[in-house]
């Protein structure tokens, strides 16, 4: 289930059950330059089988266990990073020890709800920059990620 509140979208809830998309996902993995192993296809089904969402490696590991996909946490991390490198996922680093992987690779930003450890999308055009600093010599700005940390307001 996905809840929508205005232009911001909370996709932290688990995806709905879905029919197998193995043939399609196998082709997507091949086109991304990845060999469609049994584990990659199974994890791709969990990740891409429903609406866009944000997932941590630990969350995906739990979902895999529930779906009887026998895979180690190390394999989950490796696969998420391979999917990211292939352009299938976007990695959003919250701090040095926590990253979420977003199935929506389009340009957008995020709220991070600290007390719930979940992310909510912010459309790219909802954040404006007056100026950006010049990139260091020989470099260019590849992407700007904005993560706005929020928490429940006291009552």
What descriptive keywords fit this protein?
single chain, 155 residues, alpha+beta, Arc Repressor Mutant, subunit A, five-stranded mixed sheet, three-stranded antiparallel sheet, 4 helices, disordered N terminus
Question: How would you describe what is shown here?
Answer:
- By secondary structure, this protein is an alpha+beta fold.
- The protein has a domain at 3-100: Arc Repressor Mutant, subunit A (Orthogonal Bundle).
- It is built from four helices and eight strands, in the order ββααβααβββββ.
- The strands form two sheets. The protein has a five-stranded mixed β-sheet, with no helix packed on it.
- Helix 3 (57-66) packs across helix 4 (73-85).
- The protein is globular.
- The two termini are 28 Å apart.
- The model is unreliable at 1-7 and 11-18 (pLDDT under 50).
Low-confidence stretches: 1-7, 11-18
Quick one: biggest sheet? 5 strands, mixed
Evaluate the radius of gyration: 17 Å
For the record, give the distance between the C-alpha atoms at the N and C termini, rounded to a whole number. Answer: 28 Å
Quantity of strands, as a count: 8
Annotated CATH topology of the domain at 3-100 = Arc Repressor Mutant, subunit A
> What's the tally of helices?
4
Derived from helix and strand composition plus strand pairing, the structural class reads alpha+beta
Can you tell me the CATH architecture of the domain at 3-100? Orthogonal Bundle
CATH superfamily heading of the domain at 3-100: Winged helix-like DNA-binding domain superfamily/Winged helix DNA-binding domain
Strands of the largest sheet, in order across it?
Answer: 1-2-7-6-8
Query: What does the average pLDDT come to?
Result: 88
Q: Tell me the strand percentage band.
A: 15-25%
Question: Given the C-alpha coordinates, what overall shape results?
Answer: globular
- CATH hierarchy, class of the domain at 3-100: Mainly Alpha
Give the H and E element order: EEHHEHHEEEEE
| Helix share, percent | 25-40%
